[in-house]
Amino acid sequence: MPTPELVIASANPDKVAEIGIVLEKLAILIPRPEGMPDVVEDGDDLEDNARLKAAAVCEFAGKSAVADDTGLEIDALNGAPGVHSARFAGSDATYQQNVEKVLTELDGVPIGQRTARFKTVAIVRYPDGKELIAKGTVEGHIAQSPSGERGFGYDPIFVPVEGDGSTFAQMGKEKHRFSHRGRAFRNLGYILASN
Ligand code: IMP
User: Fold this and answer.
1) Cys-Cys link to 54, which of 28, 67, 173, 186 (CB 3.0-4.6 A)?
2) Which residue of 15, 85, 183 sits with most ligand 1 atoms within 8 Å of its CB, as the best mutation to test the pocket?
3) Residue 190 belongs to what H/E stretch?
4) CATH class of the 5-194 domain in this structure
5) Which one of 69, 92, 107, 128 is the catalytic residue?
6) CA of 89 to the centre of ligand 1 (A)
7) For residue 131, what are the β-bridge partners?
8) Using one digit for the tens of pLDDT, what is the confidence trace for 14-64?
């Protein structure tokens, strides 16, 4: 079976790089078309937002498209920032501002109550309206302070349970072995291969 070609909805180079590594031999990723307007991500949850992006890019490009949406759920913050992870500290917030807001809100919360998880939903949308969906989750906790220079977003403060106590930002490619995005896109790769 030929390797499927998918237009990737994300314009975030950090995410595109990670998805490219995980889907390396499973799909050929085509960049999102130049000039495509931003998709308003006003869905109620990650799945809604991934679907909005996949459908919009598929329609604009006239080709099969893949989109994902990710959220960080922190138990002590009742699941926030969740679907609002990109703009937790404001609509134009930087990664660092979002990290600082999480640490401020968790000030004084002991390590045992800093449990959290990343969730990713990935959706492939075909021009005939057919859809494939895959999900990935990683459990962990929020560190007391940032560590590490790699990765992006909340990686400097997220410590996965499966690791050795390092944050995602202290890891190289091993992040993808148990990350939310690694799991979601490996699942998607298997589903693509069997369709
Ligand atoms: P998005 O909706 O998938 O673009 O993700 C929303 C926000 O979650 C991003 O702007 C990042 O701040 C954060 N995020 C997404 N994926 C990761 C990750 O793998 N590590 C750390 N933060 C992430």
Assistant:
1) 67
2) 85
3) helix 180-193
4) alpha beta
5) 69
6) 13
7) 125
8) 999 999 999 998 999 999 999 999 898 899 999 999 999 999 999 999 999
